Amino acid sequence: MNPSTPLYRHFHRIAWFAVLLAACVIVFGAFVRLSDAGLSCPDWPTCYGKAAWPTHADQIGDHAATAIRPVVPEKAWREQFHRMIAGLLGVLVLALALLATRKRPQGWLHVIGASVAVAIAIPLYMRGQHVAASALAVFGEALLLIGALRWSNMDLARTATLTLAVIIFQALLGMWTVTWLLKPIVVTGHLLGGMLTFALLVWMAWKSTGIFIISGDAARLRRLLVVGLVLLAVQIALGGWTSANYAALACGTDFPKCAGQWWPQHDFAEGFVLWRGIGVDYEGGVLDNAARVAIQLAHRIMALLVFGHLMAVAVRLLRNPGLRGWGALLAVLLLTQVGLGIANVMLSLPLKIAVLHNAGAAALLFVLVTLLARVRAPDA
Q1: Which domain holds residue 252?
Q2: Is the same domain home to 136 and 30?
Q3: Are 362 and 26 in contact (CB under 8 A)?
Q4: CA 54, CA 79: separation in Å to the nearest integer?
Q5: pLDDT tens digits for 251-261?
Q6: Contact status, residue 62 vs residue 49, Cβ threshold 8 Å
Q7: Residues whose CB falls within 8 Å of the CB of residue 145, separated by 6 or more in sequence, listed in order
Q8: 193, 211, 229 - which closes a domain
Q9: Are the beta carbons of 295 and 240 closer than 8 angstroms?
Q10: 244 shares its domain with 150
Q11: Where would I find the H helices in the chain?
């Protein structure tokens, strides 16, 4: 058995199911956001006071959430269903954390203690006791981080615990997305948190499966993959910022130019203000067009850097007999992702293509993390 493989024989199966579910959460979350359903349940974690969602407006009565936003049943189900599948993913990640830490001193104490603290925080938050709820959530996160710092990653205890900490913070970001009215920094952070959760699960799934790719070029290749992963993360953040600020069509339907110009009027300083206070409704965006153009330009420029680097990585993989399949896959995904990005602009952001563009980012992330987890030197 590989030293990084947990002793529980079904760990990798649970991890792979969690990977699949995390991908579904990311794609469906993009659908919710891009179909303007992100505020369709103004309360959290319920939806107009219901555990599921209202199917008719007359089911709500005088619930306090109606004062924030009238109920739209055809959108409310999207938001609440997204919360439900995200909650199921949280249960799977909790199971992985419990399995990975079960042989660690006080391992279950950290994981269960943190989970209980967060569970108690939810009803406190619903009753308006926000300070107490926040304190419990912070306590739970601290327990997990302390445990992760104490343990090595030989049995994936550290990665599993960190993944649980990330998904708990994801729940907080989901709550703030609603209560802070689609604040762009929160929406972008929620996207990045989802991608980070997905990446950590992919890493755990491959490590627990224990199928490696031996390459004499492993050290050099891994360095290139790390650089590619950083560049991709920046581009995903820019994509999230573009979407959260409704800047996808800031250049109109013009490509490769922007509004008929190579370098139109722009305002990077205004476009990248991260914090604008609380209480503003950001649905539809609050920036002027010059600021949105700056965001769109930044996303396009970064796309060129990511494409150039990852295509060079793909070519290097194609030259390696044991990695040609992965190189071909990376090249195809890159070309498809660029095509989807261009189609988003030229076709005025069709919902299906916009959602597929998010899925393409997750697919690229999957390939890079997979290669980092599997490629190793002959003597490793």
Answers
A1: 214-380
A2: yes
A3: yes
A4: 12
A5: 999 999 999 99
A6: no
A7: 162, 165
A8: 211
A9: no
A10: no
A11: 11-34, 73-101, 107-126, 130-150, 157-179, 184-209, 218-244, 268-271, 289-318, 324-346, 351-374
pLDDT for 141-192, tens place per residue?
A: 999 999 888 887 777 999 999 999 999 999 889 888 888 888 999 999 999 9
Per residue in 90-130, pLDDT (tens digit) is 999 999 999 999 888 888 888 999 999 999 999 998 888 98
Q: 274: closest CA among 297, 252, 295, 290? A: 295
Q: Which amino acid is at 145?
A: L
Q: Are residues 84 and 172 in the same domain?
A: yes
Q: Which of 162, 187, 211 is the last residue of a domain?
A: 211
Q: How many domains does the chain have?
A: 2
Q: Are residues 177 and 233 in the same domain?
A: no
**What is the rounded CA–CA span in Å between residue 273 and residue 43?**
27
Spatial separation of the C-alpha atoms in residues 229 and 225, rounded to whole Å = 6
Tell me, yes or no, whether 104 and 224 share the same domain: no
Out of 79, 141, 270, 283, the active site residue is: 79
In the residue annotation, 141 being an active-site residue is answered as no
| Number of CB atoms found within 10 A of residue 251's CB | 22
Write the CA distances from 122 to 48, 116, 133, 135, 264, integer angstroms: 16, 10, 7, 11, 47
Cα–Cα–Cα angle for 48, 54, 57, nearest 5°?
90
Global pTM reads: 0.93
* Cis omega (within 30 of 0) for bond into 184: no
Q: Are residues 270 and 293 located together in one domain of the fold?
A: yes
Tell me: do 201 and 220 sit in the same domain: no
Closest by alpha carbon to 367, among 240, 153, 164, 198? 198
